[in-house]
What we know:
- It is built from 7 helices and 7 strands.
- By secondary structure, it is of the alpha/beta class.
Amino acid sequence: MPYIGCTKKLLAELKIKAPAEHFDFRGLRGWNGTTFRLYRSKSVLLVNDETRFAVFIPRLVKNDFASFDRVFRNYFKETLEWAGADDSQIAKALLQCGGCSYGKTHNRNVLGTMNDMKQAIEHVLWHKFVRLPKGPEEIRYVTMLLNNTPYQGKDLGEYVFAAVKMRKMLAEL
């Protein structure tokens, strides 16, 4: 069961009144997430703690937040497909991503990376599309740009490419 450490804004959107206590954050269980506005539309960015693998979810409405587990699983599956994971790896990853638990953010290094990613999204959308991405191909472009950018953090010890590191993690499942 993944634990999504949410910013205050995301907790408010999800209407979580009693955040869960911290869990084991290793592998696919540790995520941090935030919500932000892009062109008057709500978007969510989720980043895995170990790999810095990003799941970008644009154009969310109230009903999407009410069933966020389902929305997360759908976008996570698509993003894994775009990153080159095979069907058996995706199936194993989705088994580990059953019902999510939500709480407060738990890794400041990931929050820093997430802020860098958010700025990259805003830059790409402003200079390439001048609007929100509309179809899956445009969402794929933005998401894979994030996942093919090298990131570094004190907890990582080296530069990592999120898509490559996620594929390595999935191969070890």
